[in-house]
Amino acid sequence: MSISFNEKTRVFRLDTVTTTYAFCIHEAGFPLHLYYGKHLPDDDLKHLLGRGMFTSFSPDVPGFSHTGFSLDVQPQEFPGFGTGDFRASAVEIQNADGNCATDFRYVSHNILKGKPDLCGLPHFRDENGESETLVLCLEDRATGAEAQLLYTVYNDLPIMTRSVSVTNRTEKPLRIQRLASLCLELPTMDYDMIHLYGKWGKERTETRRALTHGTQSIESRRGSSSHNHNPFVALAAKDSAEEHGEVYGAALVYSGNFKIECEVDAFNTARLLMGINPDGFSWLLGPNETFTAPEAVFTFTDGGLGEMSRIFHRAIRKHLLSGPWKDRERPVLINSWEAAYFDFDDDKLAAFAKEAKSLGIEMLVMDDGWFGHRDSDDSSLGDWYVNEKKLKGGLGSLIERIHAEGLKFGIWYEPEMISPDSDLYRAHPDWCLHVPGRENSPARQQYVLDMTREDVRDNIFAQMCDVLSKNEIDYVKWDFNRNLTEVGSAALPPERQQEVFHRFVLGTYDLMDRFVKTFPNILFENCSGGGGRFDLGMLYYSPQIWCSDNTDAIERLTIQFGTSLCYPLSTMGAHVAARPRTPLSTRAAVAMMGTFGYELDPRRLTDAEKDEVRAEIRAYHETHRLVSEGDLYRLISPTQDPFRAAWQVVSPDKTETLVTTVVMRMPETMYFPLRLAGLDPEKRYTDLATGETYSGALLMYAGINLTGRLYLDGQSAVLDFKAE
Ligand code: DGJ
Questions:
Q1: Residue to probe by mutation, ligand 1, list 224, 337, 599, most atoms within 8 Å of CB
Q2: Which atom of ligand 1 is nearest to the CA of 337?
Q3: Whether this model's pTM surpasses 0.85
Q4: Which superfamily, per CATH, for 333-629?
Q5: What spacing in Å lies between the alpha carbon of 548 and ligand 1's midpoint?
Q6: Ligand 1 atom 1: the closest Cα is on which residue?
Q7: Is 239 one of the catalytic residues?
Q8: For the segment 50-85, what is each residue's pLDDT rounded down to a tens digit?
Q9: Using CA atoms, how far apart are residues 479 and 115, in angstroms rounded to an integer?
Q10: SS3 95
Q11: Which atom of ligand 1 is nearest to the CA of 530?
Q12: I want to staple 601 with a disulfide (CB 3.0 to 4.6 A). Which of 272, 302, 339, 411 is the partner?
């Protein structure tokens, strides 16, 4: 890893173990992109600039007409608006005089050891001095705005991060209209755009389409990253596939409205932009104020989508997750939601715990319905005190009973929400997001708290602290069950209402930060009506996120495979539910692809099923380290094969591997040789169930013959191999 600047050529090089990123500073001061891809020797990269593309409609940069230098065709690191580059811009600032022409040029730079914090925003960390950061200082002379682009490279992984901040150095206010975190210029359009689309119950489904002229984009305007699109994208060479070919991957460390757009211009070059969605956003910047945009993380590999995922997984596990639960074995939990919904009391929960303990389950999570007077989803959000009609004797007494059964205890919250039928709403009707003169649109019969306000956050923090500090609670599920509408804040002046979407996210981050710092030992799991906020911003605060409310094992395959494109298995909340269309063993095999638990009434299991659950939990304990630390290989994708899905996890030293296959629909043939991946061809691997041994070469090049074992609907097999 290194960052260098050649004074003579004015070329910056940012090298990781396997990649090179380069740009140069043009005489006019514009940072122009040169290259991002496979690692290059120390060569003249500046010659890459010549593109010979131009039209008579391409304006010259003032003072550079003699050189025919036009921003219209240049690959830029930080393209502005309205000064000759007509493609989508990374930055647009409205000056005090109302115009929006923006053009940032080089002033100076600094190369730092390590990685600065991004105040108030989640970001990739560097706890062991494994990174270097380039701080590139730019200014827009006409407006007096300064920008800093921060590029970080790590020495252990081929990832880079980039973030941007803008400071107003004038006496008058400026308004930021758009500020993308990442701008990645590609010399051709010969890529497919791969992204994750979906909806509630069907999140993060992989889709792939060829880039075409014009702009292709995905975005959220829902106030959260959303069920519908995920802030992740890959641009993959047309001939690339799971384990070969060139792939660029990028993700935003952000949980709010985002936009990822890729514009292909008339010269067949592509520009990828990623950042806060400019729709509904602008930010008033007073004199000497600074605005920092969220961080983007990106990578390049020629090892296909699988290698891209493995790079992201390692990077997220090592540099984004934090706290004691980051690498610790997570307890096998039973969650009351699908077991009882709102219909529970202390006796029922204690009975769940007793039965669960006998199965080997380690923690009971009391989901929605324990507070205020909540017996359905129509009340009490914001009233975070226990409903003693349900939990007779109070929370302390229930927790004692659960502990007496030998289980840990976890609890559910939805901190950012408020029910119109709540004491909190009656006392503070202006504490929810709202717009004067408009009625609030209810969703799930609830409104959204104004998280931009410190007094609101203080109230929720105090209420929750009261519960969390007075009771022995090991786990919190942090839910978020609606999208934002009527996004206005009573605490902000009219000229700052366009900041509310982003300030809402900052407020949520602030609250989460306070909780993880005050209760460092609590395991936090994020959730948003399933996986409506599955993003890197949330993972900064909680090491796992509930993947989806869809707990059908076959449906989950598509969701979990899609999620794994960017996010590690250790972050994916997955449970076994009471969905008898798939055998219990298959439901467990799929849930073991993520964090593991149960979401059913354990008293309803037959004796044979109970024995099966005990065996599954033993298997989880034996394999969880491999699943959470190993390298993932997606062998057969459920979006590409209508019949079977298969995946494999390999230990970093290649001495152990776990291979899971699920039949989604009866295949055309029983014959099924499954080729494995990621093994050492020289090693011999023993199938722990049969004692048979095979060379890594045979398993990878010819495959393991599973004929007859994986044929019927819903069948599954989990094979565990160890090298001698
Ligand atoms: C949505 C979550 O995804 C569910 O698991 C459950 O916690 C419900 N909310 C409770 O309201």
A1: 337
A2: 6
A3: yes
A4: Aldolase class I (3.20.20.70)
A5: 9
A6: 529
A7: no
A8: 777 677 788 889 998 888 789 999 999 999 999 999
A9: 31
A10: coil
A11: 3
A12: 339
